[in-house]
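2024-03-11 09:14:02 INFO worker-7 job=invfold-0412 stage=load source=structure_tokens
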């Protein structure tokens, strides 16, 4: 158990991040939710007990229908209360109010520790984990773990690679760089020839920058709730300073842009050839296509390559993004809820539909190891077998990250420091020192003992 001051502070942190209070849907008003009156899907067996689920992926209804058709002993009542932050705000309201949460909640991996610290989700180690643990790799389980506990059933992930424009690479006679040193040299070659910037170093993507830190062997945090409020914070290590100084150098030399990603302006630049590469995750093709990339003048020019490495003799795979199903502590029947968490999006039909329509990149090894998935000729990449060549090896090699209840403050502060790097007011090393100082001070304010 955490000390009371730490738990209280984390609760206040989460509440402060929520929007105005709103009524949570799908619950029975007394805790978890056996009431199926708010379902967005059809209950196939009305005589079976019902488990409520909040999830936001576009094919959630189809996935829930698949589960309900295959299971007579339990049915899922699905509600889409919003994606990401909107869902978290509603979940936080239910946590703070003591009722109204769903039995099962979709949670991104970097949010799990925040909810675990509030005792809002439960450990699944003894609720079916042993039956499914071989379905996922080390990194997938590490990302949904807090200490020795398992607090989520993995769904998908974002093994990282380098998406690049073949037309630009052909125009300037370059090949995909395999190291970050080559990346800089290639970017300089393109710039010297009057070409576009090579990539972007976006302040609004702190999760991606954190992944770069891990790729260089950094361990930004140590956290185990069993250690009575202790936390290790090492955000200005030599490995992290090297990463931030590297990107600061690219910015200073105008080899990369500094525009925020996921904006209409950025997408227009991607379509228009303003960037030679897009460093991103396996979910990126689906996102880019949804934003209109690859449909007009830039159709047929995209390809994928492995992410450059710091040390090619000791490659490190990294991940950006991914979600899981967590069981709420308000669940009426935790064992039944865990069956849903482990079972939804786990059947073959749902997994196939997810990756074939580029909604998710599944982490289930039954998909990763399948010839159909590995040999799939990705339309966005003009038929390239990108899963086999880039994303499956990265997913299999990924070892996971350590997330903490301070994650949202850390991301906010890292965003500010990237902005300082990008406007020239701080070097990478200076940004790392400021990041360390701010996060340590904040952790101590929240009642943690920083070791």
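2024-03-11 09:14:09 INFO worker-7 stage=emit residues=451
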């Amino acid at each position: 158990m955490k000390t009371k001051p730490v738990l209280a502070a984390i609760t206040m942190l989460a509440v402060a991040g929520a929007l105005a209070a709103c009524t949570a849907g799908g619950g029975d008003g007394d805790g978890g939710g056996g009431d199926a009156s708010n379902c967005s899907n059809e209950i196939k067996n009305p005589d079976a007990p019902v488990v409520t689920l909040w999830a936001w992926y576009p094919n959630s209804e189809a996935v829930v229908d698949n589960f309900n058709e295959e299971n007579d002993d339990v049915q899922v009542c699905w509600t889409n209360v919003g994606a990401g932050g909107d869902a978290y705000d509603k979940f936080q309201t239910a946590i703070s109010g003591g009722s109204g949460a769903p039995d099962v909640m979709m949670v991104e991996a970097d949010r799990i520790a925040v909810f675990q610290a509030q005792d809002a989700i439960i450990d699944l180690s003894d609720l079916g984990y042993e039956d499914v643990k071989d379905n996922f790799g080390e990194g997938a389980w590490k990302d949904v773990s807090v200490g020795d506990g398992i607090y989520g059933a993995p769904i998908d992930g974002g093994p990282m690679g380098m998406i690049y424009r073949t037309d630009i690479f052909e125009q300037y006679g370059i090949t995909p760089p395999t190291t970050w040193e080559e990346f800089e040299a290639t970017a300089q070659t393109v710039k010297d020839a009057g070409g576009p910037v090579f990539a972007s170093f976006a302040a609004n993507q702190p999760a991606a920058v954190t992944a770069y830190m891990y790729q260089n062997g950094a361990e930004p945090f140590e956290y185990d709730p069993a250690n009575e409020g202790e936390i290790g914070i090492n955000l200005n290590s030599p490995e992290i300073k090297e990463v931030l100084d590297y990107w600061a150098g690219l910015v200073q030399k105008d080899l990369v842009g500094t525009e925020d990603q996921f904006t209409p302006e950025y997408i227009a630049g991607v379509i228009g050839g303003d960037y030679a590469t897009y460093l991103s995750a396996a979910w990126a093709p689906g996102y880019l296509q949804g934003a209109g990339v690859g449909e007009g003048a830039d159709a047929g020019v995209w390809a994928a390559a492995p992410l450059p490495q710091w040390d090619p003799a000791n490659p490190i795979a990294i991940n950006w993004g991914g979600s899981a199903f967590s069981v709420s502590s308000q669940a009426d029947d935790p064992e039944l809820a865990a069956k849903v968490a482990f079972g939804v999006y786990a059947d073959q039909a749902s997994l196939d539909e997810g990756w074939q329509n580029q909604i998710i990149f599944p982490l289930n090894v039954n998909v990763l190891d399948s010839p159909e998935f590995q040999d799939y000729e990705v339309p966005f990449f003009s038929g390239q077998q990108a899963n086999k060549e880039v994303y499956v090896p990265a997913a299999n090699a990924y070892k996971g990250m350590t997330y903490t209840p301070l994650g949202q403050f850390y991301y906010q502060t890292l965003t500010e420091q990237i902005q300082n790097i990008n406007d020239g007011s701080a070097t990478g090393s200076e940004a790392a020192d400021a990041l360390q100082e701010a996060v340590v001070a904040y952790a101590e304010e929240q009642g943690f003992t920083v070791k």
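2024-03-11 09:14:09 INFO worker-7 stage=report msg="The longest helix spans residues 428-445."
2024-03-11 09:14:10 INFO worker-7 job finished
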